[in-house]
UniProtKB/TrEMBL annotation, chain B:
<keyword id="KW-0406">Ion transport</keyword>
<dbReference type="InterPro" id="IPR035908">
    <property type="entry name" value="F0_ATP_A_sf"/>
</dbReference>
<protein>
    <recommendedName>
        <fullName>ATP synthase subunit a</fullName>
    </recommendedName>
</protein>
<dbReference type="GO" id="GO:0042777">
    <property type="term" value="P:proton motive force-driven plasma membrane ATP synthesis"/>
</dbReference>
<dbReference type="GO" id="GO:0005886">
    <property type="term" value="C:plasma membrane"/>
</dbReference>
<keyword id="KW-0138">CF(0)</keyword>
<dbReference type="InterPro" id="IPR023011">
    <property type="entry name" value="ATP_synth_F0_asu_AS"/>
</dbReference>
<feature type="transmembrane region" description="Helical">
    <location>
        <begin position="27"/>
        <end position="45"/>
    </location>
</feature>
<keyword id="KW-0813">Transport</keyword>
<dbReference type="InterPro" id="IPR045082">
    <property type="entry name" value="ATP_syn_F0_a_bact/chloroplast"/>
</dbReference>
<keyword id="KW-0375">Hydrogen ion transport</keyword>
<dbReference type="Pfam" id="PF00119">
    <property type="entry name" value="ATP-synt_A"/>
</dbReference>
<comment type="function">
    <text>Key component of the proton channel; it plays a direct role in the translocation of protons across the membrane.</text>
</comment>
<feature type="transmembrane region" description="Helical">
    <location>
        <begin position="169"/>
        <end position="188"/>
    </location>
</feature>
<keyword id="KW-1003">Cell membrane</keyword>
<dbReference type="InterPro" id="IPR000568">
    <property type="entry name" value="ATP_synth_F0_asu"/>
</dbReference>
<keyword id="KW-0812">Transmembrane</keyword>
């Protein structure tokens, strides 16, 4: 992306923003999109930490007892799925915000 | 984004009532295809069995034996009556997850209704089998453990179990579909002349990861969690 192209884009954005009347509806919509992003970003921290911990511990277990690899991998997948639950909840909220609430405003 | 958010549905209002039923034809049709594929798989696995197995028989035997072993570990010998249910759940979810890889097709698991129905099946089976095994009094008593005032939170945990069971599968498949449909467009917009080649290269990779890998893992996880929920209630 070269500088002239970026300047053109910025100019177009500014012109659109000036032509657009800003009322409460626009602000609400913007808040919807913003909070969907925040919801996913903050909500993904917990599952990330949890799944990383589970994966690391599973690696340790396999290193200690390589003959139990199949069972350890199965248990790890299940634990990952459980750790993922809160992330999935925040994903549902983000989906609701994006596809249900924002179009209704 | 449009193709991901667009929901094709038809609403029917029952005459003389206020009940509205919304049908999603694509989900219905794809569910029929997935069921047909699962039936076909079962037919292929079990047709002309030999002592020296062919390719289909080896695959079928591997799947059935591994699931049989897992069920025996967690439910014991009497839990083997759940093998058909767990195996059917696994195969159906696997087939419908892998359908998403084909362009312009939306597998049944991209719809919350399908996953919620599957989770409700597991819920009913788990509770009925628990009542059958332990008797109604003992089954009710489990809700008042460890203290009697824990009853509301125990009930809530049962409900949230089913909800998270359904949402997990739906969320994973839906988010994968959104990423598959969004990332090539972003690459196309972001890079000028090699964006097209980049997005063309990204599409099969994204499909392989989110469709095949995540789909397979989630199908396995769905079946295993169903098994775990049944086992927890029965013990």
């Amino acid at each position: 992306m070269d500088i002239a192209h970026a300047q053109e884009t910025a100019k177009a954005v500014v012109e659109t923003a000036q032509a657009m009347p800003i009322d409460g509806r626009v602000i609400l919509k913007a808040a919807c999109y913003l909070s969907a992003g925040l919801c996913m970003g903050i909500g993904a921290i917990g599952p990330g930490v949890g799944e990383g911990y589970v994966g690391g511990r599973a690696c340790e277990g396999v290193a200690r007892q390589p003959e139990l690899q199949g069972q350890i991998t199965r248990t790890m997948l299940l634990a990952d799925a459980i750790a993922e639950t809160t992330g999935i909840y925040s994903l549902i909220i983000a989906i609701l915000l994006l596809f249900v609430i924002a179009p209704a405003i | 984004m449009d193709s991901a958010s667009q929901i094709v549905s038809h609403s029917f209002v029952f005459p003389r009532t206020d009940i509205t039923v919304t049908l999603n034809p694509q989900t219905l049709i794809m569910t029929f295809f997935a069921s047909a594929a699962v039936i076909l798989l079962g037919f292929m696995f079990s047709r002309n069995l030999k002592t020296v197995p062919g390719r289909c028989q080896v695959l079928g035997e591997a799947i059935v034996t591994s699931f049989d072993e897992m069920i025996r570990q967690s439910l014991g010998e009497e839990g083997r009556k759940f093998l058909p249910l767990i195996l059917t759940l696994f195969l159906f979810v696997l087939v419908s997850n892998w359908m998403t890889v084909i362009p312009f097709l939306r597998g049944p698991t991209r719809d919350l209704n399908t996953t919620l129905a599957l989770a409700l099946i597991v819920l009913v089976v788990a509770h009925v089998s628990a009542i059958q095994k332990k008797g109604f009094i003992k089954y009710l008593k489990a809700y008042f453990e460890p203290f009697w005032f824990m009853f509301p939170s125990n009930v809530f945990s049962e409900v949230s179990k089913t909800a998270s069971h359904a949402f997990r599968l739906f969320g994973n498949i839906f988010a994968g579909g959104v990423v598959i449909s969004v990332v090539p467009v972003i690459l196309l917009q972001l890079f000028k002349w090699f964006g097209f080649a980049l997005s063309l290269a990204a599409m099969p990779l994204l499909n392989a990861f989110f469709g095949i890998f995540i789909g397979g893992v989630q199908a396995f996880v769905f079946a295993m969690l169903a098994l775990a929920y049944i086992a927890v209630l029965r013990e």
